[in-house]
């Protein structure tokens, strides 16, 4: 006899939070930073991570069981937090190809070029050791990887949510 299937509705902000953490770990792993085996998936995962982090605001606003923080407070925080403003431009820039002046929060931040080290290339990725997807930020003095910028956004959300009184699920993979 087959096991009964379990069904879960993914309509809670906590589900999106855990999805963000999974995307973060997938992206970090794909860079090869810790393993020495990079993947071109880093580019796609970086985009998906930014989308997930930025759109947590929508999950918070539309979760019928979340009544601790108002929609206006969520929007106010998301649109004014420096880390989330960068994540927003990365997410929206990859979604819309080109941001309008009105749609940009940072004026010049965009998803940067993909760099890699190893014998492989995009058509033969077997020997790729490390992949970097940088944030293209002309105002920054340092090159920052998207995975690290997204982590700053994740931490901004976590600190703000906890200060607002919401219980934020722990990272099952601990950074």
What does this protein structure show overall?
The mean pLDDT is 84. The termini are far apart. The chain has one domain. The protein has a two-stranded antiparallel sheet. The protein has 175 residues and is mainly α.
Core attributes:
single chain, 175 residues, mainly alpha, two-stranded antiparallel sheet, 6 helices, 48% helix, globular
Give a brief outline of the structure.
The chain has 175 residues and is mainly alpha-helical. It has 6 helices and 2 strands.
- Helix and strand content put the structural class at mainly alpha
Largest sheet strand order: 1-2
Q: Which oligomerization state do the chains in this entry correspond to?
A: single chain
Q: How much is the radius of gyration in Å?
A: 18 Å
Helix content: 40-55%
SSE arrangement, N to C: HHHHHEEH
Strand content: 5-15%
Q: How many separate domains?
A: 1
Strand count, sense and barrel status of the largest sheet are: 2 strands, antiparallel
Residue windows where pLDDT falls under 50 for at least 5 positions: none
User: What's the total count of β strands?
Assistant: 2
Mean model confidence by pLDDT: 84
Shape: globular
Number of helices: 6
- First-residue to last-residue Cα separation: 40 Å
Map the helices and strands:
Elements: H1 13-31, H2 41-54, H3 56-62, H4 71-80, H5 82-96, E1 110-118, E2 128-136, H6 146-164
Antiparallel strand pairs: 1-2
Helix pairs in contact: 1-2, 1-3, 1-6, 2-5, 2-6, 3-4, 5-6
């Amino acid at each position: 006899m087959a096991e009964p299937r379990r069904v879960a509705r993914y309509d809670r902000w906590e589900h999106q939070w855990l999805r963000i953490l999974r995307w973060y770990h997938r992206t970090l792993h794909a860079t090869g930073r810790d393993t020495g085996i990079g993947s071109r998936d880093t580019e796609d995962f970086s985009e998906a991570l930014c989308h997930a982090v930025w759109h947590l605001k929508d999950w918070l606003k539309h979760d019928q069981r979340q009544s601790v923080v108002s929609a206006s407070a969520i929007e106010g925080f998301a649109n004014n937090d420096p880390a989330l403003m960068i994540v927003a431009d990365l997410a929206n820039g990859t979604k819309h190809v080109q941001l309008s002046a009105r749609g940009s929060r940072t004026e010049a931040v965009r998803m940067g070029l993909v760099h890699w080290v190893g014998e492989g290339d995009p058509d033969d990725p077997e020997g790729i050791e490390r992949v970097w997807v940088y944030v293209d930020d002309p105002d920054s003095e340092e090159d920052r990887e998207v995975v690290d910028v997204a982590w700053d956004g994740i931490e901004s959300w976590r600190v703000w949510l906890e200060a607002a009184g919401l219980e934020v699920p722990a990272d099952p993979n601990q950074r």
